[in-house]
Amino acid sequence: MRDPNNVFHLAIPARDLDETYDFYVTKLGCKLARRYADRITLDFFGDQVVCHLSDHFDRDVNMYPRHFGITFRDKRQFDNLYKLAKQRELPFFQDLSKRFQGMIEEHEMFFLRDPSNNLLEFKYYYDDRMMY
């Protein structure tokens, strides 16, 4: 079981740290924790994402099997992030949609694409028992 004092860590490739900073910090609102010549470390909604400078990033992407993101418990927070992404004209890989309509696992979701083609999924389940 997760201890709320612990933080999940994810490392992803970044082709350019300035554009990565602009996307995650300036536009998406994440907090910069550290910056070095070869990486930036972010507070990504309470967890740690490290963007490592790399020439090895996906040039052609699909949602599956590789993406990451946040599942919100609070619908207002989900809606507010969606509105922010629209207002700041963040690049959508897939706009707002619903999956599994009429089923207990029905949820809303959208995907953003960062400057290095990493896909970020944000979702909200109507029944929070379906979050895992």
Automatic annotation (TrEMBL):
Gene3D superfamilies: 2,3-Dihydroxybiphenyl 1,2-Dioxygenase, domain 1. This is VOC domain-containing protein. PROSITE patterns: VOC. Residues 6-125 form the VOC domain. It comes from Alicyclobacillus sacchari.
